[in-house]
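Progress against Task 2.4 (sequence-to-structure conversion) is shown through the following example record, which the project officer requested during the mid-term review.
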Amino acid sequence: QVQLVESGGGLVQAGGSLRISCAASGITFRWLDAGWFRQAPGKEREFVAAIDRNGGSIDYADSVKGRFTISRDNAKRTVYLEMNSLKPEDTAVYYCAAPAGIATTPNYWGQGTQVTVSS
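Structure tokens generated for the chain above:
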């Protein structure tokens, strides 16, 4: 069993930066690809970024390429999402998930952390 807990969300001005974290429990985490999804009000949940178990393969949604960076520290059982040049349209609840990939349906989800970007 894997449990995921996000933290680090908040309010930031457009153009600013924020880093959110996802702490995982469960010994199988290091063997799972992991990633981030987001859901804005009135919209469906969408893929944001994913990283494989070793950190060697990374995918991003086109909307965040060049602005967001996903990383992980398996020793700390933590996945990070560094968000730069934030835009109001990045406002959403961000969810950590595993396993995760562009075409993968996760089995495990965190409770979500709110990111709000003001214009």
